[in-house]
Design a protein that fits this description.
CATH topology of the largest domain: Arc Repressor Mutant, subunit A
Radius of gyration: 21 Å
Helix content: 55-70%
Strand order of the largest sheet: 1-2
Number of domains: 2
Structural class: mainly alpha
Largest sheet: 2 strands, parallel
Number of strands: 2
Oligomer: single chain
Shape: elongated
CATH superfamily of the largest domain: Winged helix-like DNA-binding domain superfamily/Winged helix DNA-binding domain
Distance between the termini: 35 Å
Strand content: under 5%
Length: about 120
């Protein structure tokens, strides 16, 4: 819940039992653009960040798994497109979806996740 609030643009997160003084200071800090998080919120964010995201085979479409399998083998978009009889633009789109779903920004990291979590054979 805290991560969703922060992703949505929240600059702070306090618990309902916060003192009036802390609430007032937090409001002033938010107005000044400074983040304020309750210690419990910080702990929850750190735990979530350190927890590896588990990906299952339902996360990716069948075609995305095909593309990921070839990506793991080190093939370029053009080579993957040739192997799957589609355009390189289509493969580029699939790779973008794969990176988003695996929450990564690089092909190398996507390949490592795929191997580590046995997403491809």
């Amino acid at each position: 819940m805290i991560q969703n609030a922060l992703k949505a643009g929240a600059i702070g997160y306090l618990l309902k039992d916060v003192s009036a003084d802390t609430l007032a200071k937090s409001i002033r800090a938010a107005h000044a653009g400074r983040a304020t998080l309750a210690p419990e919120a910080v702990q929850a964010v750190v735990r979530a960040a350190n927890q590896p995201k588990t990906i299952n085979n339902d996360t990716l479409t069948s075609r995305e798994r095909d593309v990921l399998s070839l990506l793991v083998q080190g093939l370029s978009n053009t080579q993957i497109a040739t192997a799957l009889f589609v355009s390189p633009a289509t493969i580029k789109s699939h790779v973008s979806h794969i990176l988003r779903k695996l929450n990564t920004s690089s092909r190398t990291e996507a390949a490592a996740i795929a191997v580590r979590q046995r997403l491809v054979t």
